[in-house]
Amino acid sequence: MDQKIARDVTSRRIRYALDEAGATGFRYCTLGKPLFDEWGGVTEGVTFADLAAFLFFSDTGSPIPARADGATSLIGSFNGRAIHLLWSPDSVGVASPAAGNMLTPERLAGLPKPSPGFAGPVTIYAEGSTVSAERLAVAGASFRQIPYQVAGA
Asked: Which of 62, 68, 98, 125 is 20 to 30 A from residue 17's alpha carbon, by CA?
C-alpha cells in the first residue's frame, strides 16, 4: 500500500469514524520487517527480544511481562507455566549445544525457575533437542522446535 495513502487518507478516515462514534485511541504505526521469511525460517536480523515477545504472545495470548534480553532463557510465566527460549540470532538454523539453541538433558535440568519452588509445566522453544519425550514428560516440559512448531510462523 502506498505510504502516503495509509498515513494521510486512511488514518484520517479512521480518526473521523472514531470521532463520530465518540471513541478514542487510534495510532498510526509502521511495521518493521517480518520475523519469519517466506519459507518459514527466522529472518536475518531478528533479535532475541522480538522473537521472545512473539513466542510468548503466540503461546499464551498475553503480552510478555518484561522485555527479554537473552540474559536468561526464561522469557516469562503465565497461568502457572514457564516459557523458555533457547535461541541466538548468531546461530539461526544451526541446532547446536555450543550455540546455546539446543535443548539437552543438562540444559533441561538447569533451566531457571520463575520463582523458588516452582513446579508447574514448562514450555521450551529451541532449534533442536536431544531430550526424549519420556524425559520431557517426567520433567513436566514440552519442547517446540523453532521455526517448525511456532504458531503463526
From this structure: 62
